[in-house]
Amino acid sequence: MAIETWGIGKTDYSDEVSVGQFLLGIGIKATDTTVSILYHASDRGAYSPLPFEHAPVMPGCVAHAVDPTTGLSYPLTWPAGYSLRLISYWWYYSEPVIGSWHVSFYGLTGTMDRFFFGEWGSKTKAQWYEHDVQSFDTRFFDPNGQYPFSLDIQVRNVGDRPLSCEVDVIGILRAVSTKPLPNVKTCKCKFCGFEKEVAWETQKMVCDRCGMTNLYYVMRKPVASEKGPLEAKD
Ligand SMILES: [Zn+2]
């Protein structure tokens, strides 16, 4: 039986075009990587080897989100040449909270580098999920990634009892026009605060100082070419 021949010898991209139309606004390029911004607080959180799992937040106290790949707390700063788009939010909180997010571009205005972008709160326990195609993007303000920027996400317990919560924010980090990030990262021990420079792929660190085991997320590093912007380095 003869095999039926399709096309005229060229690749058929029709499926990819359709996908691009369906996911308008969330195109993932070779220069992109996802970023998780997390804070979980619960009765057992303090014993977890995961750096974003913590004990409940006491009344009046503020908790800063954590980078699960390093254990470092926000605010964190990215160098010039990168952009960050926040696309997904998931919140649960057991007590009244005020959450806020803070973005700074260093050098953009020359006079005041701190931008305060949002604050929200709830008098009652609540959960909230939002999946946006484009809720916030540093390129709204700096389309070419000319300025370093920092981001912070905070949760303040404004209730009378210890706060349990889950805060998950997902972003897309894009190398707009820059050299690759270094192949190392600084990881922080959740239990004693000891910091150590390790390979980017490090998933487990037994602390040199306190001996406790920390587990970190391994997420793909943004790929950028030294030849020019938006070209993958294969
Ligand atoms: Zn330690």
Structure description:
The C terminus is likely disordered. The protein is built from 1 helix and 14 strands, in the order αββββββββββββββ. The chain has a domain of 152 residues: Jelly Rolls. By secondary structure, the protein is mainly β. The strands form 4 sheets. It has a 5-stranded mixed sheet with strand order 2-1-10-5-8, with no helix packed on it. It binds zinc ion. The site of zinc ion has 8 residues, from loops.
The average pLDDT score comes to 80
Shape: globular
List bound small molecules.
zinc ion
Record field, number of beta strands: 14
Contiguous runs where pLDDT drops below 50 for at least 5 residues: 15-24, 225-234
Helix-strand topology string: HEEEEEEEEEEEEEE
Tell me the distance between the termini: 41 Å
Under CATH, the topology of the domain at 28-179 can be stated as Jelly Rolls
* Residue share in helix: under 10%
Radius of gyration (Å): 21 Å
Strand arrangement, largest sheet?
2-1-10-5-8
- The CATH architecture of the domain at 28-179 comes to Sandwich
Into which percentage range does the β-strand content fall?
Answer: 35-45%
What brief labels describe this structure?
234 residues; mainly beta; Jelly Rolls; 5-stranded mixed beta sheet; 1 helix; 14 strands; globular; disordered C terminus; binds zinc ion
List the SSEs and their pairings.
Elements: H1 14-22, E1 32-41, E2 53-54, E3 62-64, E4 76-78, E5 82-93, E6 97-105, E7 114-122, E8 126-137, E9 149-157, E10 165-175, E11 184-188, E12 195-199, E13 204-206, E14 213-215
Parallel strand pairs: 1-2
Antiparallel strand pairs: 1-10, 3-9, 4-9, 5-8, 5-10, 6-7, 6-9, 11-12, 13-14
The site of zinc ion has 8 residues, from loops.
